Amino acid sequence: MRQEPPDLPTTSYALLGLLTFGDDPTGYELKQRADNTLRFYWASPAMSQVYSELGRLSDLGLVRARDDAPAPVRRSRRYRITAKGRRDLSRWLREPSSEFPSLKHPVALRLLLGHLVEPEQSRALLQDYLDSLDVRRQELGAVRESLGEDQDPAFERYRFPRMVADWGLDYYASERRMVMDLLERLRSNLR
Amino acid sequence: MRQEPPDLPTTSYALLGLLTFGDDPTGYELKQRADNTLRFYWASPAMSQVYSELGRLSDLGLVRARDDAPAPVRRSRRYRITAKGRRDLSRWLREPSSEFPSLKHPVALRLLLGHLVEPEQSRALLQDYLDSLDVRRQELGAVRESLGEDQDPAFERYRFPRMVADWGLDYYASERRMVMDLLERLRSNLR
DNA sequence: ACAGCCATGTAACTCGTTACATGATTAC
DNA sequence: GTAATCATGTAACGAGTTACATGGCTGT
């Protein structure tokens, strides 16, 4: 009877995955990395969750913590993924059970209920969304720039992050187009 | 000193919103409606949550419950939004504080970690996603068909649901295009 | 008779959040 | 000196899930 490793929440694997890019970050740095990458297509966990998650992963032997300085002067703690961590993560990555993406779109939700507000409100809603979409797109654009280009061998290790960032940028672009269309549609049948 | 109405979670307002389309559904029917519409751009709550949410809304006076048959033979309970419910919902709809959509995209997350698996795995991941995307698109397509057309006055009340459904369909289409691109990109630099 | 749907609810639990608490280091 | 940033954690709470429990009604 083999002991199946217990399934962790996706966020745990996400953090574990962020530990496979080389250096041994502190919890604080890991949170920053999550804000830079994860946040665009997964929820970036709160600072406090990063720490508790690292605690759990450590208990399970999937990461090893190392104190930055010995004894009573400890300033910070660096985390490294263990061999077991890599194994469990690979296993999870290979699982075909990838769920469908879940979207929580408050703007679509409010637009759905447009019959309850004045037309001007719906227009303003979409216009505001368009603005925040542009901000987001620029933020992700900056991240994308930092990932180099496919031809450059120095950036080979960012090949997949690059693909995902391009995916996100494409999403923002198509979202932008569609929202413009919807604004047009609102205008055209303002009776 | 005026008593501010306490802010409810978005899901409460979403359910409240689904009660503004006329009939007085049971909890069970409301759940079905959520599965038909809400699910494509907001999480459809579990059956048990629908009931507890309706309990809360009832306590707050935002909906009124009516037993289907009197006394000891009650079979089901129908819910109707109250005037206060409509007021609170309108207030919420007008709030400019619309947060940015939050996406949880397990496929993008796994692709990001492509350096940990064989190229074939990433290809299979995207291919599977493409398949489930098509299923989803067809499901939403069926919903869209039931909402009629802009010109038809009989379907005037579905004007906004129609826009949102079209938005969703456009999203699925662009997602499909991009995933095909990514598959091509995977193929083209399989070293 | 039995499956499947209609219908309602409770209990236990997990994920993830905000608020709180603390303190060192760095830059101005 | 003081503000921002680096750094780590605990406590309380809320949203939402799954599992469980119950039972009537409908079609074959």
CA-atom Rg of chain A in angstroms: 21 Å
What is the rounded distance between the termini of chain A?
Answer: 70 Å
What does the average pLDDT of chain A come to? 91
Instruction: Describe the main β-sheet of chain A briefly.
Output: 2 strands, antiparallel
Measured by residues with Cβ under 8 Å of the partner chain's Cβ, the largest interface is: A-B, 63 and 63 residues
Share in β-strands of chain A:
5-15%
Number of helices of chain A: 7
Spatial order of strands in the largest sheet of chain A = 1-2
**What oligomeric arrangement do these chains adopt?**
homodimer
- Helix fraction of chain A? 55-70%
Provide the low-confidence segments of chain A as ranges. none
Structural class of chain A: mainly alpha
Shape of chain A: elongated
Total count of strands of chain A: 3
- Helix and strand pattern of chain A: HHHEEHEHHH
